[in-house]
Amino acid sequence: MEDGQGAAPATGAADPGGGRAGEIGRRAGRGLRWSVLGNLVMKAGSFVMSLVLARLLVPEDFGVYAIALAASQFVLYVNDAGVIAAVVQWRGRLEEIAPTATVVAIASSAALYGVFWVVAPYFAEMSGNEGATGVIRVLSATNLVYGLTAVRSAALMRRFQQDRLTRANLVGFCVNAPVTIGLAATGAGAYSFAWGQLAGAAVTGVLVVLSARVRISAGLDRAVAGRLLVFGLPLCVSLGIEGVLLNADSVIVGDTLGAAPLGFYLLAFNISSWVPGLVGTAIRYVALPGFSRLAEEDRESLSRGVGRAVPLLVSVVLPIAVVLGTLAPSVVVLLYGERWAPAAEVLRFLAILMVVRMLAALAVDILAAMGETRSTVWLNLGWAVALVPALMIGARVDGIRGAAIAHAAVALLVALPLTALALHRAGVAVAPLASALVRPLLGGALAAAVTTALAHVTPDIPFVRLCVAGGAGTLAFVLLVVPRAELGRLAGRVTGSLNAGTRPVTPGPEPTEEENR
């Protein structure tokens, strides 16, 4: 028998009370904590590994790897034909879809791998380095592994067993790092990255298959396959457009302004991507299965979930955006030095983009959970159509600052309204969100005012300014936005944790058969 033949629901957007929705929320919170923890450890480990490799490899090796990574990342967007999302969202029992989904995912990833094996030399030549061909072929094989394990990964997400996914990913990284470093030390060059990632992906895949405990079987039900593709293919197109949204500015800025300004712009963009990469990725692990389970209940439960999730997300991200926007020069100079100071003017506006990016990503997951994947295509397409000409105009008029202003303006004036419209047309109650967002927005305005005022009277020392002005602004936001009762409960938890000392923590029970449906 398959373990967990349905979805183990979760989303942090559920009513914290009792009942099905409350259980969804509690299980989502646990899954989110594991996802954030896994992301933190992986990011820290990757940073340390990059420091070691920087001393073993030459810049040309990193350049070859960057070309191969770009190719494999593009394939990753459409690798499984949307099977993972479709399995997570599936209304019904997992055993109904698993055999067909397995065939579709493997066939899709194998076909794409075959295509990229053939086009790898042309892609490498187009990128200016024919030596990247072999590295592309090896690195792209990791996507083949993802296709083989797609249904099992989806089963873990569907049950919100992020702890098992996190452990599998961490063990895979523990294989990836020594293989990569060992090969680099022996002169393997850019191949060290590719073989290390492939080895890590293979180990992670084995652990995912074992921990998912889904019987490995294959079969093809044409009706099920049709439903999978109707759901998954529009989502693949939407994610492909999302890739354009994330990379169009780099292409346009580089083409219009040259390599040096692009370097400043990319530095600011990378800083603005830290929170989406860390918190946003973790949220996406839980949002799709959680909202899918709420949608199975009724639209009212889903709307309540959205009504809690969106203000919560804004409350978490907005104070970070305020600090990045108001204290951008201090952030850039402290982290990278005075010579990178021109990136600060870009970061001020990309901090706004960061908030909209995370809201739009959450909306895409909500729409996918409802089966409205075509709406995600129109949302991202409308954003992209407005963004490209705006970036061209902004870069020509005001350089990298103009491009950043264009990005932020399109996000606020086009992407945000399109997001609200898509949710409304899908049947989500959007109007209550306006009142729920009043306090976070007022808190953001207060935080910006406090931070700006204190920045003018604080010594021009980046660390001091961030601690004093940024800390005071964040505190002002918390005191205004977080209810006093919630602050009291949080203080009580902290006190209880301190009093608990080293008492062992008893893990929660495994999901029951009924919960897994």
From TrEMBL:
Q: Where does this protein reside within or beyond the cell?
A: Cell membrane
Q: Mind listing the UniProt keywords for this protein, alphabetically? A: Cell membrane, Membrane, Transmembrane, Transmembrane helix
What is the membrane topology noted in the UniProt record heading this document? Answer: Multi-pass membrane protein
InterPro entries given in the database record: Poly_Biosynth_Transport
Any matching Pfam family: Polysacc_synt_3
Superkingdom, taxonomy of origin: Bacteria
Predominant location: membrane
In residue numbers, the region (Disordered) covers 1-21, 498-517
Coiled-coil annotated residue ranges, if any: none
Record bears the keyword Cell membrane: yes
**Quick one: a GO cellular component term?**
plasma membrane
Which chain regions cross the lipid bilayer?
36-58, 64-88, 100-123, 135-156, 168-188, 194-212, 224-245, 265-288, 309-337, 349-370, 377-397, 403-424, 436-457, 463-482
Quote the biased-composition stretches of kind Low complexity, using this chain's numbering. Answer: 1-14
Belongs to which family?
Answer: Belongs to the polysaccharide synthase family.
Q: PANTHER family, from UniProt?
A: LIPOPOLYSACCHARIDE BIOSYNTHESIS PROTEIN WZXC (PTHR30250:SF10), PST FAMILY PREDICTED COLANIC ACID TRANSPORTER (PTHR30250)
Q: What is this protein called?
A: PST family polysaccharide transporter
